[in-house]
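Journal club side-thread
Mid-discussion, someone asked how the predicted structure for our own chain would compare to the paper's figures. Pasting it here so we can look after the session.
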Amino acid sequence: MATMDIFNNDAFGLVEMTDAVEKLDYQPRFLGQLGIFQPRPVRTVSVAVEKKAGVLALVPTSARGAPPTPRRERAGERADIRDFRAVRIAEQDTITADELSGIRAFGTESELVQVMDEVADRYLKLERDIETTLEHMRLGAVQGIVYDSDGATELFNWFDSWGIAQPAEVDFDLDNATPASGAVRILCNQIIRSMARASKGAWVEGQSYVMGLCGDTFFDQLTAHSEVRSTYLNQAEASELRNDFGAPFGQVRYGGITWVNYRGTDDGSTVAVPATKVKFFPVRAPGVFEHVMAPGETMSTVNQPGRLFMPLIVPDDKRQMFVDLELYSYPLMLCTRPEMLLRGKNT
């Protein structure tokens, strides 16, 4: 029968448990899997972000042998440097001595293996909750405002941080019974041009593209729109109209934009795009989004590069009656180009 003493084994040390937790399969989330957030481990709890005008400028001619004109002096640029502090996400579960009493060695498996399996199962549940929280933050970052779990408290407003006015919603007028010819295509062109021009060099021709995360109603009306459907008629893609075109939680390509029916949490509110809205952001645009990971709070993690998850096992040293399993994450979901973030509505 396993006892509380088993947690003195080196297998439950910080380094070993961190490696083990990061190998667990976490709950799939669209933005996390999309790979637009560049991981950035740091050794401090806050990061300095430098923002310059970033505009392209012509280089003046100069005499041979003369020193080049410094770029900042030439363009009159001034750097704007600000500090942003990562936040802490923490969750905990408890294994009691009574729960361990039911764990026994079986076959060739040792008690240690049995306990490690139980710990891994508990950490998987904690990890799923934190990963959902991180997805909530990613969804906020691609809209320019990161909220706390209550959906109302602002953690980071990247528009306000850099003194940028959030662009107004674009009305796609999708429920118009007699839409003007090419109206949706024209709005798509406007979205792409606006995002590319606001990128300050982050838009890479032939690589970057616009993605729109759609709420359910917006996606259904878009894929049912006569202009969008007519594009697929009399072409090889026409078969898609009979198959999975516009399927729930699917995606379609139209007007140079990839439209995704975003699936968040099943309650439609905790992590979600409102039903009649669409949120536009760039994909494959280097440096626009970063997932900063700050170090943990323990003595062993001070000044160490941050990691996605930080597990900690805290035994009851006084009475040996329980062990607390704690899981931490210290993220900062950073958007360096909030000017590129656009939004729309169905009507």
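Post-session note: The chain has a mean pLDDT of 84.
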